[in-house]
Amino acid sequence: MVHCKRINNAEYGLEERELLSAALHIDKSLPHVLLSTCNRTEIYWGEGDVSSGILRHLYRVASGLESALTGESAIQGQLKSAYMEATGKYRLSSPLNRLFQSAMHTGKRVRTETRISQGAVSHSQVTVDMLKRKNIDLKRKTVSIIGVNKLTEDILKYLLSCRAVNIFLSNRNVEKAKILAGQYGGTAVSLDNKRRMLLFSDVLICATSAPHTLVGNEDIPDGKEMIIFDLAFPRDVEECVGTRENITLFNLEDIERFAAENRQLRASEIMKAEQIIDEEMAAFYEWQEMRATYL
């Protein structure tokens, strides 16, 4: 039989996963595949038949149905890397090889034939996705970001993937802004110089932990056109800024509403994904029966 031990985010809390992961191990001389991500640790090994429970689980993992964010695509690459690393170290059994090859094929079918991976669901993804929908040419526009944290760094990565080149980074602690700017090719600006920065900005993204607003009506020149994303709580941008004729202001509620719509879209595609998984499981069982006949 092919066996599986697993710890994942659906069954255990973060602290429990840390404790169990430390205890989860297998003899390194035994051919196996280790799938280890921030949300799961899974070990597969053995020869012979693959149970329906293991088969359906791995197909669902490959399809993004077991992920914290349904439909996320990173797991596909993680699964392939785990399998390739295992084949580089061991001679895996035929059923184990077939299991992972068919799982990767199933995951690819789900992403190709359904819309389960469409639509951003994280704050950082949604922000950039909304810019795309407004047909903003990021290669030609200047984007300013106020705040240095995980959220703004993720947004910065997405911006660079869209080939944004003119990026200002500002923060109360300007040294932190300089470090992040150095890593991603931006320009650090002291928060004291925010008015001059905003003079040249086409897009402003704010996400700080400040207890008060940082950008007021008087900080933005008259007649200035700008799209602003205020991802802070409490808000970084005065509400009245959004009433100006040439300013479009999105706050945290707007972002979360957009993300909720995308999550609903993904949820509606789960049934289609499950149908594909059923088809691929049937194909695997057919292979398994034929293999048993000739052994």
Q: Please state the average pLDDT score.
A: 88
How helix-rich are the residues, as a percent range? 40-55%
Structural classification: alpha/beta
Strand order of the largest sheet: 6-5-4-7-8-9
The stretches of 5 or more residues where confidence is low (pLDDT under 50) are none
What gap, in angstroms, lies between the N and C termini? 15 Å
Strand content: 15-25%
- Computed over alpha carbons, the radius of gyration is 24 Å
Encode the helix/strand succession as letters: EHEEHHHHEHEHEHEEEHH
Biggest sheet statistics: 6 strands, parallel
DSSP helical segment count: 10
Report on the architecture of this protein.
This protein is 47% helix and 16% strand. The chain is of the alpha/beta class. Helix 7 (174-184) links the parallel strand 5 and strand 6. The strands form two sheets. A six-stranded parallel β-sheet has the order 6-5-4-7-8-9. Strands 1-3-2 form a three-stranded antiparallel β-sheet.
